Amino acid sequence: MDKCIYCGSNNIEKGISVGSGNFKTGLRHVNFLVPQVEWFYADLCKDCGSVRIYVKETNRNWD
Ligand SMILES: [Zn+2]
Question: 46: domain range?
Fold first, then answer.
């Protein structure tokens, strides 16, 4: 996002990798017996602190 949807600020930190470091998360799914993890990314508004979470690859079988 270019502007915060909550407060309208454009003081945004984009593309923070939520799935690395000491806060580890992700959606696991199985593709031909190979478990994979879809990493989450976040945009953070530095003014109000709200966060938008998204993934870069949406064309997956999320079952
Ligand atoms: Zn904001």
Answer: 12-54
